Each structure stands twice: as structure tokens, then as C-alpha cells.
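Quick one: co-fold with manganese (II) ion.
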Amino acid sequence: MTASSKTIKGATGDWEVVIGVEAHAQVTSKAKLFSGASTEFGGGPNSYVSLVDAAMPGMLPVINEECVKQAIRTGLGLNAKINLKSVFDRKNYFYPDLPQGYQISQYKSPIVGEGEIVLDMADGEQVKVGIERLHLEQDAGKSLHDQHATMSFVDLNRAGVALMEIVSKPDLRSSEETMAYVSKLRSIVRYLGTCDGDMEKANLRADINVSVRKPGAPLNTRCEIKNMNSIRFIGQAIEHEARRQIEIIEGGGTIEQETRLFDPDRGETRSMRTKEEAHDYRYFPDPDLLPLEFDQAYVDGLREHLPELPNVKKGRFTRDFALSEYDASVLVAERETAEFFDAVVKKPDGDPRDAKTAANWVINDLFGRLKKEGKDIASSPVSAAQLGAILDLIADRTISSKIAKDLFEIVWNEGGDPREIVSSRGMAQVTDLGAIEKTVDELIAANPDKVAQAKANPKATMWFVGQAMKSSGGKANPQAVNDLLKKKLGV
Ligand code: MN
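Sure, here it is.
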């Protein structure tokens, strides 16, 4: 993507869109941030609420170490600075589903400082996006307004669940980059196992800050589009919001800092409230909690046990397996997919299979079939071991690639050991051509015009190969058929 294709044309010239993302990622942990109540999803209303979560008088928060570990691990995955000392603050605002009357969050001293995410764009461009900070904070509960005609109810199951707020620098310049950023962030936390990334359940949601300016001009006032939990809608919301702001400015107006909501049905954003400034929240250190402190050895211990992350995996796939950048990035997008591919490439005895063939089969045949059936890799009817066995049958020339597609279908529908299926159903490739020699002779006798063509241009032999393959039911070895034909035609 060139710089100019990232700009939007307005009546007065080109405009640049400046985007920053504040993501809220629910920490994967059995218990809440400051209480022992369960974080399970889908329980009856108020079934996971401790006295701390309900903010009963005199209750004191106790930090959950698991959440601290997860925040540090995420910070390491973002190549970020881990702060050995951080502070929890009270962010004061009234919300009917926040019983404390304040949210315990981190303000001036977050647990994680600056980091970076590298995006691989479809055209091969790499975009570096700065991470400003990551801090831990509590989630709020949920108000239910549709249960009763005159009353609102509250469900506090989510109140007090740990969130990581991950704030990017305003380094994004298009809806495509922003969608790629949220996808990459989701991929990283899923690899780490620090957040399940389930956007439908709002376990990962993003506030998108959008402003526009003439290229090179200082930053303009931004609007925040709140609580986006679909990557596709994030793209649509940015496109709409940027054009809305351009029209206002070109019409002689100014942008007011505000919080807006995206309406997917109408494809537009609308005002929700004017945006609060930090000083509206009266932040102050929570006197119920000591500063959070740990040492470098603790961080190093966590770093040692991090899984191989997508960028490192991608580097390994392009380097060790000579895969293209594109194939590698498709395979590493999800940890499960990358692990499946790793398992396909490795023979039971540990020797490698041909990685390029394996990548083609996983990306084209398997992913294509999974997509068609609406399945994901975890529910694939063809296992990595089965696909690997199919590849071995191709490699040792027991079957042709064409028959391999039929075999894949059989394994997909019926399961079973691919090698046994090939032998029990007589699918093996035929290299002894005695059986089709007669057909070849007949073809040559019946098609003198094609024979003449083949003699003039050996490429025309392919017509005979095709016919002979067909008569063998696809089981003849194409190379052997080719050799036979060349001999008979004298080309
Ligand atoms: Mn927040």
C-alpha cells in the first residue's frame, strides 16, 4: 500500500486518518481480579458475586496473582517494558452496574509500559504500531433494562472480572491497518492464553479513536467509537467516521471530542456523550491496595515459558520450510492452525515431509473444506496424522495428486487409515502400463490428425495423456503414460 492510497479524498484535497485503539481484553483466569468469585460465562444472573464484587461495606480487595502473571505475559508478548512497580488507582464514576462507585484501575503507573506490534499487511508491507501501555482494571456488571416494564435489573457476574486495557499509539492510518491490528492483538493474546479473544462474548472489545488531518498537519480533535466487538464493523465504523469528520471540517465546522456508537444496521456512528477528560474521574491511589511489586527474576521466569509467538513462528516457517511470507502468515494466524501444520510436516519418525506440499494441502484443501462446512481446525474430520499419511502416499508415488483429492474426501467423510483405504479400494497408481497400452494404440490409430499435431508440436501429446489417464480411471502414473506415448509417437 502506498502512502497516497491511505488518504481519503475530500472536496479540499487529501485527508489522512489517524487512528488509535484502546482494547479491553478479559484476562483468562478462574477467579476475578480482587475476589475469589468465578469468572465463568453463562451462569444465572448474580451467581458469581462475592461480597467484594457487590461492594459490601468493609470488604477489602485482594489481588489475584494469576491475573498479574497474565498481564506480565501479555506485556512480554507485546515486546513491552514490564514495570516492576505499579499502582492501582480508583477511577471515580457512577455507573448502576458498578457497585463500588469507582473502578479499580491503573492510571499513572501501569503494570506494562511501551511496546510494539508488527502488522503484516496483505500487500507485504510491514506496519509497526506502538503500544503506549497495558494496565489491569476491573470490569463492570451488566444492567438489564428489558426484563421488567418499570424496573431495571442488574447482573454482577462480570463485575470485578480482570481486564487488560491495551492502549496503542495513534500509529494507524487506515481501516485496513486497524482491522489488521485488532486481529494481530487477538492472535497474540490467544497464543499466550491470556485472553480467549472471543469478540462475540465481548471478551475482547475495542474503543477506536479517529481523527482526520491534512497530511503532515498536527493532530486534530478525535472522536472515540466505543465498544466495538467485530473486526468487520471496526472497518466500517472508521470509514464512516472519517468521512463524517471531513465533511464537518470542510463545511467550516469543528470536531467536538465525544464518544460515539456505531450502528451496524445503518452503517453510521452517532453521538453517545461528550467525552470525559481524565481529570473528570478524580483518580487517586486506592488506599486498600499496596503498590504492586515484583522482581526481574519473576518476569524472566515468565518469559522463559512463553510459547512461540506468531511472528517467531512465521520466521521459522519461512526460514526452515522455505514457505512464502503469505503462506506462513496464513498458517500462523491461529495457534491451533500453526500447531496442526507443524504436526502435518513432521513424520511419525520425526523426519520432515515436503513443507510446500503440506502448506498447499492445509491452506487450499483443508481450510477450503473447513470453511465450506463452517468448521474450525479443532473440529476437522481429517487429523494431522491422516493428512500426513496422504502426503506420504503422494510422495512415494502410491497415488497421484488427483487420486489424493478423492482419498481426502473419503477420509473426510468416513475416517480411517489412508494407506489401508488405498489398498482395500484399489486406488493405487498403476505403473505397469500393459493394461492401457491397447487403449493408447487405439487412440493413435483413430486420431491421425492429433498424431500429426503431436509430431509437429510435442506439447500436443498432452491430449493423448489426458485420454489415456481417463481410460485408466486416473490411476495410471502420468509420467509413465507420457513416456509410453512419446515412444509410440516418436516425439
Ligand atoms: Mn478501561
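If it helps, Residues 231-250 form the longest helix (20 residues).
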